[in-house]
From TrEMBL:
PROSITE patterns, sorted: HTH_RPIR, SIS
Organism: Jeotgalibaca ciconiae
Keyword Transcription set for record: yes
UniProt domain HTH rpiR-type: residue ranges: 1-75
The name this protein goes by in its record: MurR/RpiR family transcriptional regulator
Domain (SIS): residue spans on this chain: 89-227
Biological processes per GO annotation: carbohydrate derivative metabolic process
One of the record's GO molecular function terms: carbohydrate derivative binding
Amino acid sequence: MDIEKLIDKYQLNKSESQVLRFMEKNKPTIKNMGIREVAKHCFVSPASIINMAKKIGFSGYSELLYSFLNTDTSENAPHTFTDDEKNKFIELFLRYHEKRIMVLGFGFSQIIANYFSEYLNLYGFRSSAHSHLELIRKTNKDDILIILISNSGNTVRLAELASMSDEQNIETIAFVGERNSKIGSLATLTISTETHSSQSFKEFSPNLFFGTALNQFELLMSEVLKLLYA
């Protein structure tokens, strides 16, 4: 929660701003304070705090407090990648920020590829969800980054593209459901959900790959964007 942005956005008065700044400053101990104690420290009434909370979009003090204690979504989200993988992802995206990015998938993975590509374009990257095979050559090895999305990690056409990219020294990021797969073994960086198994093809069995891959992408891109625009 960016306190100063909230204060500016909702044009909070001095007393209202003081409450938010007090809560931010005392975040480690605020969960043990009741609304009356916070009000006492800030020289305002409990009703004023409740009204301020509603003014900035919360139902009351309890929801405001919960938001303060759960602002870091990356701490609570499931981490299905290592720090080394995160750092490599950041390095690649910073390096290819102004270069071309190709995001590829087939079937349901194409829907995820479209989302990734639109997301990247929204934040100023040059991304396409269509394959341009003429770009996969050594002369373009420093000008294009390829992202491959495959639940099994063995989608034939994508595996061929991964092999072509590897031969031409073009860097690739693979989002796969199985790390030890054809695509996973060829990629420069493999982000695996570790959710793929034969069991996933049983009737009514949940397919966790697509949702998990989206979460991974969102978490990783959040780190990239912080470095680019924060």
